[in-house]
Structure formats: structure tokens, C-alpha cells
Amino acid sequence: MIKTIVVGPRGKMGRLITQIAADSEELTLIAGVGPSGRDYIGQDLGRVTVLGRDLGIPVVDNLAEVIEDCDVIIDFSTKEMGLETLRLAKEHKKALVCGTTGFSPEEKALFCQAGEVIPMLYAANTSKLVNVMNKLLQMATAAIGEETDIEIVEMHDRWKKDAPSGTAKEMGELIAHELGEELSDLATYGREGSGERKLGSIGYHSVRMGDTPSSHTVFFGGLGERLEISHHSTDWHGFAKGACDCAIFLAKQKPGCYSVADVLKL
Question: Where is the Dihydrodipicolinate reductase C-terminal domain positioned along the sequence (predicted)?
């Protein structure tokens, strides 16, 4: 069994990851790690994640206290906790799956650099279907990217803190690199005023409303026709299942910087 720690177990992703890992035949939970000062620190992980049963596993507020006993860490917490988790994972040579978003490009680079010493997988989206969509985006961009107008529309719930979403940014980066460019040189975020669309740009539009879990559509607009590639989720289960699949894969790897595409062999 792969001994697993979940960082951020009270969040919407952390709860689902804990529930799926608790029933896994390959993962065994050894601890949950929450932010310091929360009222659930010291309680049973099953109770904190509303699992319906106790697991006999504590939620602590200090990863350093429990990290030595684990094989892999799954972190869907906050930007600040994610960076601390990365530091400790490198220090203790533990595999890390991180799905936290909101990092700057420089901070994201730290995760890939960690692959020099630990098995590392950073992904803004661990859904199997989203990563299949990414493969389709590569194919579409290679075929028609230079002759169409590309727009990305993403929807999330009212509580999401970053915009555009990390998934939408990854999609844009993938498209830009397929075109031989950097996203920072092509991205346009929203529009107002007058003037024609900038040729070759990638447009971004972020919608925040209600409890919409996650929705991404990429438009390839031509003259007289358009192609739309979309992914819509009705809940977070697919993302949590994907994160657990990533942890199972990563625990068996040598140090390196891996992706969900490596897990799925895309």
C-alpha cells in the first residue's frame, strides 16, 4: 500500500480525495494536514471530511511531524501551504502531487525544478477527460491554429479566487507552444472599447457564478465556421479520482517532473 498524506483535507477537492483514497486498494491514508489554528486540527480525518466513519487518522497542522512516514503527498490547499509542502517534500525526498492553482510563473517553475530530487507532478487539472481535451487542443492547433481566431471561455463558482483558471492558463500555454509562441505574448484578457480583434491573439473570458464546478470551452473561429472543444463537469469527483491516480503513478517513479499525460500515456 502507498502511504499517503492529504494536505488541505477540508477543501472541496481535499474532501473528495480523502474519500476516494480511503476506499482505494492501492492507497492508505496516514494523515491529513490543515492550516494552523483551524478548529478541526486534532480531529479524525474521516470526521473532518464527512466520510461517515472515523479512520483512526489525525488531522495535524504541521506536515513536518508526519511526512517521514509517507510515500506520497497530495496537495490541493492554498498557494502558501503549497509552497511549504514543496519545500518539505524536497527536504524529505517525498513524491508530491500538487493541484493548487494561483502560483506565479516563477513559483510554478519551482515545482518542475523539484523533479531534480523528487518525483513531482504539478497539474492545474487532474481530470482524465480534461487531459484528453488538451490532447485534442494540440491536434486542432497544429492543423488550424494559424488560420483561426482562438478564444478561451471558462466558468467556475463564485468562490474561485484566481482568474483565468489554472486549467485555462494551461490550455493557453499548450496552444501557444504548439504555435511556437509564449502565452504572455498572445493573451488578451477580456475586452472593452472599440477596435478590431488583434490578429494571432488568444482571448480569455472568465465567468464566475453560483456553484458552477468547472467549464472550459476553446473556440477556433474561422470564416463561415467554427470549432468548439469543451469540457463540463457536474461535480469534482473526476478531478479527485484523477489526483489519486496520479499519486499511485508517482509513488512508483524515479525523481522527475511528470504530467497527467504521463499518467494516462497520452
Answer: 130-264
Query: Could you tell me which of 214, 238, 229 has the C-alpha nearest to residue 156?
Result: 214
Tell whether residue 52 is among the known ligand binding residues. Answer: no
Name the grid cell of 231: 469540457
- How is domain 2-126+237-264 classified at the architecture level of CATH? 3-Layer(aba) Sandwich (3.40)
Question: For 30-55, how does the pLDDT look when each residue is reduced to its tens digit (9 = 90+)?
Answer: 999 999 999 999 999 999 999 889 99
Q: Please tell me the CATH code under which domain 128-233 is placed.
A: 3.30.360.10
CA distance 45 to 122: 24
- Report whether pLDDT(102) > 90: no
List pLDDT tens digits, range 224-244.
Answer: 999 999 999 998 899 999 999
Whether 177 sits among the annotated catalytic residues: the reply is no
**Residue 229 pairs with which residues in a beta bridge?**
218
